[in-house]
Design brief:
Blueprint: E1 2-9, E2 18-25, E3 28-35, H1 37-49, E4 61-69, H2 73-83, E5 95-104, E6 111-119
Parallel strand pairs: 4-5
Antiparallel strand pairs: 1-6, 2-3, 4-6
Length: about 120
């Protein structure tokens, strides 16, 4: 089942996934990591174009990602898998296989992403 196809997009890098905030714990101010606004926007953009199955996939699943980017593939994988939680499958812990095919493009060129998800038999 093809779940996502996005062309002419800009994928965020892993370094923009988190931002640092401060929180008071037991009277002390400590730094904490929170999901950045850029990462949240990326997830929402993916979620808008996801083709949802009639019912959530409940068994183990395989995910195939075909991406055209200049970034590391790990930047793409986490956002893609997170965006499908609760929309395609219940939780990404159901994933037993991830296959990634990357086509390297020059920086500044439009990036492209296609994702297929299949329930394992």
């Amino acid at each position: 089942m093809k779940v996502i196809h996005i062309s002419n997009t800009h994928l965020i890098g892993i370094n923009k996934r988190y931002s640092v905030a401060q929180k008071r714990i037991n009277g002390r101010i400590v730094p904490i990591l929170i999901l950045s606004n850029d990462y949240r926007k990326q997830l929402k953009a993916f979620q808008k174009v996801i083709v949802r199955p009639k019912e959530l996939l409940l068994g183990s699943v395989s995910v195939s990602i075909d991406v055209k980017t200049s970034k590391d593939v790990d930047c793409v994988v986490k956002a893609v898998l997170d965006s499908m939680n609760g929309l395609v499958y219940r939780d990404d812990k159901q994933i037993t296989l991830v296959v990634i095919k990357k086509t390297t493009i020059k920086r500044g060129q439009p990036e492209e992403l296609s994702v297929r998800v299949e329930e394992n038999q």
